[in-house]
Specification:
By secondary structure, the chain is of the alpha/beta class. The protein contains 5 helices and 8 strands, in the order βαβαββαβαβββα. Helix content is about 30%, strand content about 30%. The strands form 2 sheets. Strands 4-3-2-5-6-7 form a 6-stranded mixed beta sheet, sandwiched between helices.
Length: about 190
């Protein structure tokens, strides 16, 4: 399974976000703002705005420096200190594309909690079914993953150099899944 990759097209991302928007609405969570973790959360956040029209704030978090070396913990590249007062007492929906080690998500949650929001919910496209490096604090009561997946490499469309090839590979992946009797995920 180490060689296996999950290819995700823009159409699939759109469908997953639409499904998540329905779950959020059904759950009764009504966010005041969306906070998108960059760069993977930017496109999902914008698509979500189509279904849940709220302002989007963008943050940049990185595990890697300019020298491309892995750091021991996430660091802020871009942050939203200037809207701190606007988040106090508000419901915040934090969005990223994948919950892998959870370090980035938990770091952002911790930073946002210092702004004293009423509630923070977390939305992601894919939760990797594996041991996380960090747990969420108890304040996180709402967690919205579109899909639970094995610990495989996920190829998102915004990372594709050739989008037509990317879509072809996703289609082939769906055909293999169907042939193997695996359930399609949308």
């Amino acid at each position: 399974m180490a060689e296996e990759k999950l290819y995700v097209s823009y159409n699939t991302v759109h469908k997953l976000i639409k499904k998540l928007a329905g779950k959020i609405i059904e759950s009764g969570f009504d966010p005041d703002v969306i906070v998108a973790i960059g760069s993977g959360g930017f496109i999902p956040a914008r698509i979500l705005k189509t279904f849940i029209n709220r302002p989007i704030y963008a943050v940049g978090i990185s595990y890697y420096g300019i020298d491309h070396k892995h750091r021991e913990h996430p660091t802020k590249i871009q942050w939203i200190d200037e809207v701190q007062e606007q988040l106090k007492g508000k419901k915040v929906l934090l969005i990223d594309e994948v919950d892998d080690t959870r370090a980035t998500l938990a770091y952002c949650v911790g930073e946002l909690l210092s702004y004293q929001p009423e509630e923070i919910a977390v939305l992601i496209l894919h939760n990797k079914l594996k041991q996380k490096d960090v747990e969420f604090p108890p304040e996180i009561k709402r967690y919205y993953p579109a899909m639970e997946v094995e610990d495989i490499w996920i190829k998102y469309p915004w990372d594709a150099e050739d989008i037509d090839e990317h879509e072809r590979l996703e289609k082939e992946m769906f055909e293999r899944m169907k042939k193997d009797g695996k359930e399609l995920f949308i």
